[in-house]
Structure formats: structure tokens, C-alpha cells
């Protein structure tokens, strides 16, 4: 092919005029925010001059500190809007199928109660049927619970796949997750093709039987022979290669189906198992000796494949000869199937997936996001971009030092494809089982570099962010593939407590990285301009939880001052007031522009403002406490699994956009207390404002309190007016009433 008729596999362009407007807005906001900081600083100086300790001076001090933190975070966030890009891919230009690389798919599950087996199996079936040569696809299911039901269900799923996969490929089914396909409510067209309808009916019966079997498995009526006495916390490693039987070939038509490997690593009480990162590292090793595909797709168990062409889309980047030598992974957005129209918990994570990652894509690439990414295997083994390894690095004894004492695994590092798997005849030569089981044992990693330099990194419960950051630091880049049809769809928590627990984990994990030796502020910031911006973005995420500090300050001091008729902000008629208005409006407009650009509306804007406030005062605050407790050695930060089940009342409340606080712990207390305090201050302050005719002086604080009240309405309602089980738990309501009441009383008595 000559250069003239070379057709690119993908294109990329900067999103304009957004990028230019963003830069202009930066200048405007910078000036106004500096003026506000100057105003606060000078007032603080005068206040301290007159009274060292008074409500006014203390409040001004905290508001000043809060603004400094906000300003710092605002500076860090500037990398995201600097150069947003959008990409297109052309999978039809890929070389023919037999030159496509092999792909291992990792699916992670950890608890059959919180993660319904049928959903996990739907994920498995959906990826088995993707549009990619079956003999080049290998699916690995990691089961951290070591649950028999998952193993048995996998075998059942495999049997079903022998019909499901050919059916999908023959009729070119658009969504290859059986549950979605057979969900009658989602079928929009009456298909007249008789053969198709007959086949569909036949497979539907099979699928229903399959579901029935799994239900029985769960009820223990249907048993599957087990060899071990197992519990979730303690079980030996177990690996089963579920593969195609040579017989029965008449049913299978011309299609082979991908292999499925069930992996449950060893677990022992008292031994750290490193959560998802630990499970991923086991899969890396086990798959290394079985199939050793050069690319890996990682999926959470609830993320089914919604577009069978996703692997080919990803290959448009990985197979581009220019980009490929430095490309570590292709990230797809996380999108969700069970989000309600209201999306009160902002589960869409719009800002991350619809704005920030587009921005990072224009720098060195998006953050590794846990699921929906296609990573190049060797990058996880510590390889450097474009680097050729010297012969020393290929010496098995040296490799063992880093990678552990397995001949098989170390051989897999130097050989292109594993000797256990013969690609031509697509059957496994049965690997020596003992050797593979060792790779999944608790002790294998002792004394090796796994988790520190190799594989997924330990040390943070956001193993994805941490590992991706490490890859970027090693010089790799990533790309963001955001097709209009969602490539994968997952499940979001639909009550406030689950959302809170999830957000707390993310924030704690990010803060762990911020406080580690890998702090993005130190790491890599001086390499180049793009790198500096990229590191700032990483740092913004790492320090995300510090937003709780300005939120606490703004939730306490303006209210206390308003209650006492003290003014914290300039009068409406003063020229300084303008700077405050510009800062406030500019940040609102920036946010609104983002929301509209993501195809969302004013409701999303309100929801995000409210959610930001609520999480800042709960999840983020407790994340800081969690990390602090870890630092002083009192407790560890845990990976609390997100619940993926819900009952009917919960679903109904969620669909109706009603906040569901059921099950919330005292973690909710700061948010509820401050919302009541704001309500009290608003009433008391407004009364004072009228009585002393201080409209002009206190107007800003009045408006500010009204704004907070509007944001905190669901909390107020949940404490004071609701009776259903989704209200704020009585224990939390009681304590927040006591606390906010005492603060207000204290103010009346002593100030
Ligand atoms: O010890 C564990 C804990 C979790 N998981 C699996 O990890 C996945 C993600 O867990 P989930 O509870 O669904 O967490 P989320 O908060 O929804 O996950 C987000 O955040 C995680 C980091 O905290 C990332 O790993 C995920 O990919 C990302 O979707 C699930 O498939 C789990 O089965 C394990 O395999 N072992
Ligand atoms: Mn999840």
C-alpha cells in the first residue's frame, strides 16, 4: 500500500470552539478569583487587628482557607478543559481476521449474594458472542468467593453458549446479552423471518431452563460435585478450563466458541488478598501460562457487552503502527443500563466519562477506569514503550526474581504465545495442573515485585487509577474510545447508602495515592507541558476528597455569621461584590456548558450541585478519616463491594426520583446536621435582617443560605417530613437535630 491511499484506522480532532472558550474562561475566572482571595485576605487582616478571637475573625479565617483550597483545586482541574478531543474509529479498515491478535477477557466477581450469578453469566455470554474470531478469544472468570454456584453456573453457561454464540453470529444480533435480548419489552420490531423466529424461540426455551437451573443451584436443590470444604474467606485455589467437547459437533454449525476458564484464587484468613488488584494479578499469571494473549479486556461482572464490535474498535488503536508502540490501553466509558431519568445520585458519573476523559485524551490519555478497557499485556509486566528487552532480561533466573518462582510463567514472558495452547487446533494441551494452581496461591507473590512494580499495583483500593497512573509515568499513553452506541453497560447503586459507600471507597483510594510516594503532584510534573497538565488532572482526582474542607467551612461559618447578623461578604453596592458575582457565575456557567455539551439539561446541573455537596460532607469526609486511620495504623481501607441487587420498593423510589436513605449510617450526620443548621440560620438570620434593616449587608448570605436550602431539601424532607422507610434513619435524624439545635442555642446564649 502506498502512502497516498493509506486509510487511517482512527482519526482525532480537537473539540472547538469548546477548547478556546475554556481557555478564555480560565483567564476571566483567574482574575476574579484572585480578587476574591485578595478581598478575604485584607479583611482577615483587619479583623485580626481588632479582635484576635471573635466569631468574625475565625469565620473569615476559615472562609479564606476554604477559598485557598478551592483556588488550588481549581488550578489543578485546568488540565481537563485545555484540549478536549474526540475520536472516530474505522473497524472496517482492519486487516483480515486471521491477522487479528488474540484477546483474553477477564471478568471479575467476588460475591454471589451481592452480584447475582445470572447477571455474571449474562456478562460471560455477552462477551463470548462478540464479533471477533472465536478461536482468538479466551474468557477468564475470576471468582473471589470461590462459590460452587458460580463454577456450576459457568459450566451451564458454556453449554448454553454453544447455541447462543452461533445464533448471535448467524443472525447478526445487535445486543448479545441474552437477558436483554429476550426481554420482550425491549423488542421494538416484529421480525417476520420465520427461521429466525423459530431459532429465537428454541434458544429462549434454553435460556429459561438455564435461568431455572441457576435459581435451583442457588437454592441448593441442584448440586454440583465439589471437592473442597470452602468458605468465602478460606478456600484453596481452583482452576477449571471449560472447553468444547469434540463430540456433538452437529449442533454447532460452523462456529467454534471461545474457551472459558474459571479461576478462584486461594484465600486464607489472616493473609492479605489485596481485593480486586490481587485477583487481577492472579488472572494475569494464570492466563499467561494458558493462552498468553497479547491484549486483555477487563470487565466487572456486571458490565455486559452491548456492542459486539467493541474489540474491533479497540484494535483500531492497538493495531495502528504509529500509535501502537506507545499505547498501553484503550479505555471505553462506563455506561449503565439501570439509571433512572432523574439520576438523583449522579451515578452516570457524567463529569468523569463525558467531560474529563475527553480532556485527558487530548493530553496523554484517560485514567484507567477499572473496567471496559483493552490493555496490552506486556505493559503490565513492566515493559517500557518501544523498548526492546535485552537478552539479560530474558534469563529465566532473573525473571524469577521479579515474577516469582514459576518456570511456566517465566517462559510465557519470553515466548510469544504459550506452549499450552495450540492456536491452530484450538484445543488445550492440558497444562500441568499443580503448576497452574501454584500461580493462584496466597504465597506465590511473596518476595516478588507483584503489586509494586509488576501487574496491578497494591496500596490503593482504586487499583485502576493507581496502575494507570504508573503506566502513564512509565511513558505509556492511553486513548479514549467513546462510540455513540455504548460498548458496555453496567449496573449502578440505586440508594444513597450504596452510593455513599462506593464514593467513600473511591475517595479513600485516591487519597491513598495522593499521600503515597506516587503523589501525582511530585511525579512527572516537570517532564513536559502536556505532562504537567496531565499530572495536575491526576492530582485533582487524588485530592478530590479535600473538597470536604471548603464545604464544611461554607456549611458552618456563613450560617453562624448570618444568625448573628455578621457580614462576611461585601455589600451588594460595593465594587468588590462584582468579583464574587463573577466567580460564582463563571463556575456555574462552566458547569452548565459542560452539562449541555454532554447532552444533559438543567436537572442534571442541579443534581450534580446537590450531589457534590452531599458527598463532600459524607463520603469524602469519611474517606479522609479512613485514610488517616490507616496512616496511624488503626485500621485498613477496605474494598466494600458495591451491592448489585435491589428490591421493588427501592427500585420504585429510585424511578420516582425520591431519595432513599434507608440503611445510612451515622456517616450521613455531617450533611444532615449542616442542612438543619442552615435552615435554622436562614430563619433566624432573615428575622434579624428585617428587624435591623440590614438588607444590604446581609443580602449575599441570605441568598447563599437559600441556595444551600434548595440543595439540601431532600435531606430536610428526609429528617422532618417523611415517614416511609426511605427517610433519614431516626437515629441519624435524632442526632442531627440535637447537634444543630445545640449549636444554634449556643450561638444565642454566647454571641
Ligand atoms: O475483592 C474484590 C473486590 C471486588 N472485585 C470485583 O471488582 C469489581 C468492581 O467492584 P464493585 O463493587 O462493582 O465496585 P465499583 O465501585 O462499582 O467499581 C469501580 O471502582 C473500582 C475501584 O474501586 C474499580 O475496580 C471498578 O472497575 C470500578 O467500576 C467487581 O466486578 C467485583 O466483583 C473482586 O474481584 N475482588
Ligand atoms: Mn461496579
Automatic annotation (TrEMBL):
Localization in the cell: Endomembrane system
Gene3D superfamilies to which the protein is assigned, alphabetical: Spore Coat Polysaccharide Biosynthesis Protein SpsA, Chain A
Keyword annotations: Cell wall biogenesis/degradation, Glycosyltransferase, Membrane, Transferase, Transmembrane, Transmembrane helix
Organism lineage: Eukaryota, Viridiplantae, Streptophyta, Embryophyta, Tracheophyta
Name of a matching Pfam family: Cellulose_synt
Binding site for UDP-alpha-D-glucose: 114-115, 144
Gene Ontology BP terms: cell wall organization; cellulose biosynthetic process; plant-type cell wall organization or biogenesis
Active-site residues annotated for this sequence: 144, 464
Name of this chain's protein: Cellulose synthase-like protein
Superkingdom of the organism of origin: Eukaryota
InterPro entries, alphabetized: Cellulose_synth (IPR005150), Nucleotide-diphossugar_trans (IPR029044)
GO cellular component: endomembrane system; membrane
Record-listed Mn(2+) binding positions: 276, 300
Molecular function via GO: cellulose synthase (UDP-forming) activity
Membrane topology category: Multi-pass membrane protein
Transmembrane segments: 26-46, 52-77, 537-557, 572-590, 611-632, 666-687, 699-720, 732-750
Amino acid at each position: 500500500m502506498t502512502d497516498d491511499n493509506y486509510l487511517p484506522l482512527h482519526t482525532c480532532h480537537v473539540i472547538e470552539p469548546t477548547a478556546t472558550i475554556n481557555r478564555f474562561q480560565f483567564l476571566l475566572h483567574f482574575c476574579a478569583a484572585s480578587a476574591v482571595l485578595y478581598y478575604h485576605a485584607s479583611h482577615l487582616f483587619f479583623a485580626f487587628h481588632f479582635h484576635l478571637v471573635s466569631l468574625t475573625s475565625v469565620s473569615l479565617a476559615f472562609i479564606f482557607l476554604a477559598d485557598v483550597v478551592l483556588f488550588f483545586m481549581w488550578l489543578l482541574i485546568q488540565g481537563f478543559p485545555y484540549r478536549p478531543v474526540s475520536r472516530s474509529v474505522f473497524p472496517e479498515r482492519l486487516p483480515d481476521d486471521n491477522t487479528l491478535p488474540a484477546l483474553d477477557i477477564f471478568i471479575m466477581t467476588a460475591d454471589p449474594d451481592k452480584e447475582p450469578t445470572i447477571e455474571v453469566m449474562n456478562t460471560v455470554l455477552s462477551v463470548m458472542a462478540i464479533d471477533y474470531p472465536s478461536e482468538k478469544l479466551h474468557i477468564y472468570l475470576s471468582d473471589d468467593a470461590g462459590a460452587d454456584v458460580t463454577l456450576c453456573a459457568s459450566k451451564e453457561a458454556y453449554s448454553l453458549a454453544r447455541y447462543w454464540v452461533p445464533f448471535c453470529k448467524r443472525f447478526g444480533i445487535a445486543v448479545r446479552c441474552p437477558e436483554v435480548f429476550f426481554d420482550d419489552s425491549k423488542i421494538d420490531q416484529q421480525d417476520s423471518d420465520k427461521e429466525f423466529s423459530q431459532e429465537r424461540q428454541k434458544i429462549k426455551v434454553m435460556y429459561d431452563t438455564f435461568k431455572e437451573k441457576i435459581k435451583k443451584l442457588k437454592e441448593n436443590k441442584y448440586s454440583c460435585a465439589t471437592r473442597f470444604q470452602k468458605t468465602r474467606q478460606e478456600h484453596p485455589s481452583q482452576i477449571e478450563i471449560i472447553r468444547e467437547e469434540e463430540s456433538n459437533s452437529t449442533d454447532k454449525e460452523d462456529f467454534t466458541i471461545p474457551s472459558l476458564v474459571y479461576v478462584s484464587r486461594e484465600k486464607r484468613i489472616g493473609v492479605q488478598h489485596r481485593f480486586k488488584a490481587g485477583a487481577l494479578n492472579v488472572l494475569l499469571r494464570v492466563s499467561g501460562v494458558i493462552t498468553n494473549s497479547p491484549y486483555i479486556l477487563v470487565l466487572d461482572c456486571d458490565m455486559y457487552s452491548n456492542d459486539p464490535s467493541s474489540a474491533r474498535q479497540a484494535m483500531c488503536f492497538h493495531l495502528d503502527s504509529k500509535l501502537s508502540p506507545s499505547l498501553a490501553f484503550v479505555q471505553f466509558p462506563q455506561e449503565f443500563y439501570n439509571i433512572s431519568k432523574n439520576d438523583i445520585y449522579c451515578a452516570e458519573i457524567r463529569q468523569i466519562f463525558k467531560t474529563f476523559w475527553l480532556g485527558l485524551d487530548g493530553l496523554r490519555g484517560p485514567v484507567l477506569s477499572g473496567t471496559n478497557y483493552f490493555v496490552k499485556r506486556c505493559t503490565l509486566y513492566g515493559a517500557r514503550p518501544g523498548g526492546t528487552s535485552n537478552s539479560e532480561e530474558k534469563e529465566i533466573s532473573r525473571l524469577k526474581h521479579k515474577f516469582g518462582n514459576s518456570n511456566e510463567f517465566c517462559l510465557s514472558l519470553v515466548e510469544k504465545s504459550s506452549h499450552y495452547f495450540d492456536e491452530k487446533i484450538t484445543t488445550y494441551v492440558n497444562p500441568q495442573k499443580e503448576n497452574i494452581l501454584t500461580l493462584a496461591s496466597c504465597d506465590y507473590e511473596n518476595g516478588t515485585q507483584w503489586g509494586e512494580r509488576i501487574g496491578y499495583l497494591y496500596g490503593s483500593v482504586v487499583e485502576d487509577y493507581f496502575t494507570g497512573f504508573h503506566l502513564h509515568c512509565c511513558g505509556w499513553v492511553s486513548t479514549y474510545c467513546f462510540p455513540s452506541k455504548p460498548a458496555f453497560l453496567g449496573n449502578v447503586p440505586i440508594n444513597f447508602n450504596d452510593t455513599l459507600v462506593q464514593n467513600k471507597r473511591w475517595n479513600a483510594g485516591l487519597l491513598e495515592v495522593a499521600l503515597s510516594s506516587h503523589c501525582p503532584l511530585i511525579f512527572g510534573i516537570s517532564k513536559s507541558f502536556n505532562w504537567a497538565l496531565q499530572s495536575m488532572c491526576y492530582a485533582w482526582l487524588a485530592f478530590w476528597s479535600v473538597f470536604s474542607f471548603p464545604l464544611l467551612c461554607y456549611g458552618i461559618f456563613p450560617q453562624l455569621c448570618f444568625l448573628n447578623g455578621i457580614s462576611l461578604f461585601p455589600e451588594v453596592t460595593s465594587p468588590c461584590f462584582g468579583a464574587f458575582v463573577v466567580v460564582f457565575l463563571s463556575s456555574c456557567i462552566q458547569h452548565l456548558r459542560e452539562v449541555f455539551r454532554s447532552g444533559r439539561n438543567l436537572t442534571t446541573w442541579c443534581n450534580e450541585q446537590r450531589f457534590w455537596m452531599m458527598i463532600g460532607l459524607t463520603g469524602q469526609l469519611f474517606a479522609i478519616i479512613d485514610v488517616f486511620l490507616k496512616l496511624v495504623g488503626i485500621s485498613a481501607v477496605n474494598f466494600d463491594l458495591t451491592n448489585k441487587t435491589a428490591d421493588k420498593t427501592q427500585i420504585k423510589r429510585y424511578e420516582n426520583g425520591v431519595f432513599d436513605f434507608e440503611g445510612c449510617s451515622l456517616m450521613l450526620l455531617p450533611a444532615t446536621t449542616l442542612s438543619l443548621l442552615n435552615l435554622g440560620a436562614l430563619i433566624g438570620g432573615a428575622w434579624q435582617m428585617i428587624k435591623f434593616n440590614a438588607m444590604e449587608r446581609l443580602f449575599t448570605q441570605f441568598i447563599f443560605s437559600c441556595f444551600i436550602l434548595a440543595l439540601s431539601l431532600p435531606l430536610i424532607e428526609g429528617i422532618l417530613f417523611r415517614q416511609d422507610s426511605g427517610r433519614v434513619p431516626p437515629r441519624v435524624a435524632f442526632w442531627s437535630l440535637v447537634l444543630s439545635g445545640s449549636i444554634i442555642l449556643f450561638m444565642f446564649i454566647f454571641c
